[in-house]
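Human: I would love a firmer grasp of how sequence relates to backbone shape in proteins. Take your time, and here it is.
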Amino acid sequence: MEWVALAAVSVLVVLLIMERERSRRALREERGFFDAAPVAMVVLDGNGEIRVNARAASVLGEVGLGRDSRDLSTLLDADSASLARRIGREVLSDATRIQYADVAITARNGAVLNCDLVASPIEFEGRPAALVVCFSVEDREAARTALRQSEERFRRFFSDLPVPVYRTALDGKIVEANDALSELLGIDDPMSLRGANAADFYVNPGERRVDDRDIRTDASVEDRVIQLRTTSGRVVRVRDMNRVVVDDGVPMFEGVAVDVTQEHRFLEELERRAHQQETLAEVARIALRGTDTRHVMTEAVHRVAAVLAADCALIAQDGDERDPVASHVAYEIDSVRERDTIHDYIVKRLGEAPADTVEDLDPADEVNGVPIRGMRAMLAGPDEAYGVIAVAGRGFNPTKQDRDFLSAVAATLGIAVGRCRAQESMIELMRSKDEFIASVSHELRTPLTVVAGLALELEQRWQTFSDGELSEFITLIASESREMGDLIEDLLVAARADIGEVPVYPDLVDLRVCVDQVVASCSLADRARISVSGEGINGNVDPVRFRQIVRNLVTNAIRYGGTRIHVTVGDEHGRALVSVFDDGSGIAVGDRDRIFAAYGRAHDRQGVPGSVGLGLTVSRKLTELMDGSISYRYNRGSYFELQFPLARTPVRAD
């Protein structure tokens, strides 16, 4: 047990030594702070002993007195020492009392010190004491000078900062503003900003609204982008970073306002370009997948108008401005009259746009004083223009990127229209091919059936037929054979025309004689419907090819024309003219442009076998090879008119 007691005593001794060492260290730190203080300090205890620091000793004219305790009478004259003891007693008598005094203290050497005293109770070196801090007039003036210099340096620093800095009251009144902020707002004198209300510069004053949530006392920074309007009316975007500070108990906002207008415009332009590229890709996808041209155009104009922020967008095809194939009008325009004005403006300017370029439309009409502007671009195909796309709007001001975007959309739609038309042509070609095969089969089978049937009858029972019957059979066989031959000749001409190998041999030919020969080859019933007029006209034509042309025109009139057919031979304007007329209903206006195309047919008369659709195509090709022309017109009947060089005209032989 003795060793346990010995250990306990040892631990206690160690703890006492550690506590004593901590006390000594704290005392050294306390004395060090007191002695090094830049202001004069005096400590008074209850016995009237004092301790002064180095600064107090210097002020009182006694150097090196900061280490020793001494009576006041060693430093001050009797009156000053009495005053100091009284202040000390009053402070020591009330531990919560702080004394302030403006006094003149006289030192033992006769020096008079005017100073401000501040006395407060403390515990110094473990004993109650009164701490008297003495501020001399010289120190006070020096402090004031230093403060003014510091404030002036801060003011210059604040004013010269390149970033706009401000302080505002909670009600928006501007308390401080530097030169950069006044320059941002277009104000020459920064001092004139003081007292102005910050809300007056907000584009949206509601953004300046202050509520309880804005009074942040945790020094947190609010970071937001706002729009300000300068004195010149220009709108700038500003990144406002502010916090709430409390100055003399009054909360206020202080912050910086960085001009991010150019950065915002750059980001907006990047977003705009990205949106345009995304829309262009979307239009391309629609165009690639779509088979309905009108649907593709409608989807395109909606997207183009949205991307370009245009009030109206239209697409017209094949020069028909009166009936746009697709249109978009912004329905956020309240007035129907305003929508009609913008729509009419763009329709009037839908005309053909320059190839491979985007053309701006001149401003003309106005809506509520705002001019309407626009631009247009051609939907160009490989060999032709398919139409025009145009956009317009109030105050519309397209950039180069906008023009490039519209040009790319127009090119995409041109490709889409060409692809759709190629598909339609392919479908039509496949249909025509099927009809062609069926028609050829029918056209060849009909005369071939007649020839084969009559030949079989003659082979098996020729001796049973009379001479008249035999003659009729032979005539029918010859007629049907000629029809087959004519059809095969048309097929050969069409095939050779594609590779440029159709031979023609122009000669001096009496066109009336050739016409009579064609009519004579028709059946008796058909000849009864046909009349011929005109004297003999000599033309430079290939007689075989000329008769082939006339035969096709007469056959076409017999099959699809009226009850009366009339062929006229004559001359007009120095050229030979042959006209084939029938009193039928004619060819529909929409079909007249395609009747000369291969496999094109404008008639589908019930009870009449379908033709191959090559007759008019072959006729035009042969006519052109003989330096002639063929045309169609309707005037109370159908007229197919041929024109060829007269005999005195030099002939081109191919």
